[in-house]
């Protein structure tokens, strides 16, 4: 019996992988290299048609679980990271539940995520906290990762002989962050980050996870936009970042994007639009590139300017951040922190 069970499991895993890795990426607005400089995509790409209208959006609940318990984010630092970079990212995650931060706040932004419920009517948790961390300074799986080998990195982190990350399938999120010298499959050309869940055949458990890369050396004009602009857009001007690290600044919005979608669609069977669960359009995808009122297409929307000229749109505990808005299913348009920041 064992060989036949193993073969069936392998075939099932192969089928799932085919669906996952052959899926067409979601088209949301960033200054991707493939966009025609003279195309109307620059003004009326997918973000534009979604903003402020339910005509194009059919976000539905597919009866899967969402994260209603206190959410713990376990971080894997892959590659070499500066202490200052880790501090910026940690402070952003800690700010998600910081209800006393100055408005508009990261916590106010998270309240839109909290509007989503499971089939019992329970809301997404208001508590997001940092969990344990694992450092992989020596690139144990190399400097070039595939979508599949990312799961192997997570397996190494949760099965390590020394201080493994805890196993928490119900309310744990596993955040793999790669340094600026690590290449990841489809990075810069199609994605700046993504989320899914681990396969028991690889990791031993089904764990919701996200990967986000530091684009500073590879494609800051794409994944750290608008704090950097691509070379093929010579007329565009980069904005000043609030925390002085363009690569990490770009990661913050992508991390926010992925955590929001992990909370509402951790096993890819809860909240999403579209008919294909292997390529779901989720609550942050619907608002890609929108950071303020009036945003859509290549226009980021109205943002705030700090005393030193830096651009941001929400406050954390001690820092300011620029984070994209997310889809509010109750009103059917993208909302930021001001709408629910009370």
UniProtKB/TrEMBL annotation:
Residues 1-28 form the signal peptide. Pfam families: Phi_1 (PF04674). The keyword Signal applies. Belongs to the EXORDIUM family. GO terms for cellular component: apoplast. The lineage of its organism: Eukaryota, Viridiplantae, Streptophyta, Embryophyta, Tracheophyta. It is found in: Secreted, Extracellular space, Apoplast. Transmembrane segments: none annotated. This is PROTEIN EXORDIUM-LIKE 5. Keywords: Apoplast, Secreted, Signal.
